[in-house]
């Protein structure tokens, strides 16, 4: 390049490179040139302005923060595996016994006897868990329950006397309340953090709904496509595997509590147990009525997915509720009372799609109620007997389900399949009255209440 002589220029003079006429091309700016003596050289590029500060990283969501805690993913994995059989055992036993013995009456009687045994044994098992620790009690109790399931299969296959079926299934009553133990772990880990505890309780409710939504589907598939005993055997294997995984994570296990003096959980829950019982009657009557109503429309096997929409709605609403500020129990019960009237109105129209939408909406209203009601247990039960208190609540729900199922069955025989939808609507209204009338002191405890 030819040089340009400029005697009067100083070495620090900076000249920009020539710029062509016309619009500037979309390319980097031309380098600057400096005069050194009689020679043009490249000048150092001027300092660029500092970039704007990077945007702050988005704060992790409540569930991400929850499962960032050490050990939570491990025990939750075991919890979910062991939870699925909770929705499998009943229908598996019915399909296995009815298929092999040809009697639904016998099958229903065996399952009912097992539920009655659970109502008696489960609180004692939970008390031992609180007293001696989860791993020391849950694993042997699970082994007894699994042996009971295997004995039931053997007795059905060998055509043993009917009483052996009752005895075998009654042994499964020692099954630990995996949901209660998981909630107890979250309570132990999240002391002093009510917002995170609310998220954890919402997740546990969603896990309950997921188990009772998928469990019957998996059980029915195994019993019909593999062999009648497959559902019971798979449930037993999942229960044992999940419980071993769950109890292997000892770092998150609450410490064993010495005997706690004071009011027993049964007395402390005196105002809450009727509420859980009424909620159980609502669940039981809604399920039986929906089965009969959809069967009357000729849906047959397709009725299962429609009914599962209720559990799906509750599962999704539970996860969403965990990201929101908790509401008061009266407000949740009021929303439930309104939502439970929708299936009755939809059934009266004779439209299956309308009923499906109503069941989905009704299910979405149940999760906030259950999360909030379960949270009340933590407010009235000492931490040393928390698992026992939650097991008593679950027992009250199961008792309500049995009562609601029986009442709905009788109503269907007398009034058809539409009018009995008034039963879950009435139960939801009664739950609102029980949860608000004369119990303000209990339900006003805790954050956000």
Polypeptide structure, described:
The chain is mainly α. 67% of the residues lie in helices and 3% in strands. The termini are far apart.
Shape annotation: globular
Strand percentage lies at: under 5%
How far apart, in Å, are the first and last alpha carbons? Answer: 83 Å
* Total beta-strand segments: 3
* Alpha carbon gyration radius: 32 Å
Mind summarizing the main beta sheet?
3 strands, antiparallel
Structural class: mainly alpha
Compact overview of the structure:
The protein is mainly α and about 450 residues long. It has helices at about 60-65, 70-85, 90-100, 105-130, 135-155, 160-170, 180-190, 195-225, 230-250, 265-270, 275-295, 305-320, 330-340, 340-350, 350-380, 385-415, 420-435, 440-445, and strands spanning about 15, 30-35, 40.
Task: Show the helix and strand layout.
Layout: E1 14-16, E2 32-36, E3 39-42, H1 62-66, H2 72-83, H3 89-101, H4 104-132, H5 134-157, H6 162-171, H7 178-189, H8 194-225, H9 230-248, H10 265-268, H11 273-296, H12 303-321, H13 329-339, H14 341-349, H15 352-380, H16 386-415, H17 422-436, H18 440-443
Antiparallel strand pairs: 1-2, 2-3
Helix pairs in contact: 2-9, 3-4, 3-8, 3-9, 4-5, 4-6, 4-16, 5-6, 5-9, 7-8, 7-16, 8-9, 8-12, 8-15, 11-12, 11-16, 11-17, 12-15, 13-15, 13-17, 14-15, 14-17
């Amino acid at each position: 390049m030819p040089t340009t002589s400029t005697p009067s220029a100083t070495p620090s003079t900076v000249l920009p490179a020539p710029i062509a006429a016309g619009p500037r091309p979309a390319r980097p700016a031309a380098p600057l040139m400096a005069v050194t003596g009689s020679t043009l050289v490249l000048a150092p590029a001027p300092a660029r302005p500092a970039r704007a500060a990077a945007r702050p990283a988005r704060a992790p969501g409540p569930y991400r923060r929850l499962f960032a805690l050490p050990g939570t993913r491990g025990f939750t994995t075991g919890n979910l595996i062991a939870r699925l059989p909770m929705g499998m055992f009943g229908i598996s036993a019915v399909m296995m016994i009815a298929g092999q013995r040809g009697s639904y009456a016998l099958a229903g009687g065996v399952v009912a006897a097992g539920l009655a045994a659970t109502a008696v044994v489960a609180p004692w098992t939970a008390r031992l868990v609180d007293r001696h620790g989860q791993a020391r009690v849950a694993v042997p109790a699970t082994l007894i329950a699994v042996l009971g399931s295997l004995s039931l299969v053997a007795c059905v296959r060998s055509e043993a006397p009917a009483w052996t079926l009752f005895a075998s299934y009654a042994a499964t009553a020692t099954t630990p309340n995996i949901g209660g133990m998981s909630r107890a772990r979250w309570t132990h880990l999240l002391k002093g953090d009510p917002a995170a505890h609310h998220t954890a309780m919402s997740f546990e409710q969603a896990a309950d709904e997921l188990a009772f939504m998928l469990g019957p589907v998996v059980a029915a598939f195994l019993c019909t496509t593999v062999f009648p005993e497959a559902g019971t055997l798979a449930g037993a294997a999942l229960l044992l595997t999940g419980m071993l995984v769950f109890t292997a994570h000892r770092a998150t296990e609450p410490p064993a509590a010495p005997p706690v003096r004071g009011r027993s959980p049964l007395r402390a829950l005196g105002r809450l147990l009727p509420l859980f019982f009424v909620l159980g009657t609502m669940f039981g009557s809604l399920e039986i009525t929906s089965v009969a109503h959809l069967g009357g429309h000729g849906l047959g096997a397709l009725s299962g997915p429609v009914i599962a929409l209720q559990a799906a709605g509750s599962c999704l609403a539970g996860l969403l509720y965990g990201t929101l500020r908790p509401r008061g129990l009266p407000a949740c019960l009021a929303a439930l009372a309104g939502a439970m009237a929708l299936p009755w109105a939809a059934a009266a129209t004779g439209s299956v799609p309308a009923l499906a939408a109503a069941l989905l909406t009704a299910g979405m209203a149940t999760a906030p109620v259950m999360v909030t009601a379960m949270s009340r247990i933590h407010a009235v039960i000492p931490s040393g007997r928390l698992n026992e208190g939650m097991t008593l609540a679950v027992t009250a729900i199961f008792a309500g389900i049995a009562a609601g199922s029986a009442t709905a069955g009788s109503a269907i025989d007398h009034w058809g399949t539409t009018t009995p939808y008034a039963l879950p609507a009435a139960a939801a209204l009664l739950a609102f009255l029980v949860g608000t009338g004369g119990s303000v002191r209990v339900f006003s405890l805790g954050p956000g209440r």
